[in-house]
Amino acid sequence: MQCAKRQGFEVIAVDMCSDRDLLNDCQKHYPLNDPNWQLALIAGHPNVPVLFTGGMENRIDLVERCQTNGLVSTPNASSLRAMRSLDNWAAWAVSCNLGWPATLQTMDEIRSCDVLFPGRKWLAKPFSSAGGIGITEWFRHEGDDHASAFDPAKGFLQERLPGESIGVTFLSSNFGSAVVGATASWKSGSWKSEASCVGEPIYAYQGSYGPVSLSRELLAKLQSFATLVGTESGLLGLWQADFLLHDNELTLLEINPRWSASMDLLDVCLGIPLVQIHHACVCDHISEERFSHVASQCFDQAKNARNTMLGKLIVYSPKPFVVTSIQSDKWWTQRWSCGMNFAAKRFQFADIPNAGTSVSRGDPLLTVMASEHSPEALMIELQRGRIEALDDLEDMRRL
Predict the structure, then answer these.
(1) Do residues 77 and 113 both lie within one domain?
(2) N or C: which end of the chain has fewer CB within 10 A?
């Protein structure tokens, strides 16, 4: 939201959360569950481009209605289905010499998992998951009826592999596709000094930092991957793929054909107006010369280490509560300003809930943002922000 506003766009937001940041920065807001939001947009803003964010890849029917009603949406429903196909993920990874985890999609495969893949560890991943929420470890117990233990209609099993989680942002246009940059995700629990975050989803997105540099060899594979996926899916604009990096090899985990939670880190740190360029690619307003310049600039930055990193950490609530005006106002005074101009300042907060918001145990509370010169220094500063946010909950309980 802040990236779009900073780049000159008037934003009309449609979402389920309606946090304080969003309501402050958007021109208009419609709840996603309001059945009239599409008609309202068409009446006031015909042919307005739509930038999808978290979870929209799981609402293909809604995307089709956007297209039918005249909203410019990308990816379109056809590209969306291609980009969310497990079979395509496997084929694209293998074609580009990238790894692909053992994946079980049918009940016959699940029943035979010990024979097909002896000694493997598995994760159960729902098709409708966003941000890793809902992913759990899956164990086979002797004598279990696999048919009653897992429903392949709702998800799939995938081998749990070692490695660092890397999110790579790509940009596709009518002139080709390019690697924009990469961020690394924090490992679950890497900041915990006490059991204060009971209820935190184990495999949910914890936050990320970057940009991180990648070797020329890996960047070459990723460029081939970008070209293949962009061509076969027909997608235009920004998208992200998640990988595991282990022993200098990348293994594909997932493709998200939308704006991802880590793209704002790249937008700020690389100095490249990603929302503006996404808009130009989607609306076919970008020239081949401009796209080539952006692609070359991104490639050069992706292979070089940076002196300054930007990081974010998601704070999950350890208990249910209702946000007070005192809490919301306090966090708001330390609001992230979407730029590197706060590099010398302490941590800041984003995704701040409004007063009166009901937060359940295990729900995201807010996001801590910070800028530092290394992942280790970033984590120290982000942890300070997390502790302060959780202390605010305890302070209010004692009043």
Answers:
(1) no
(2) C
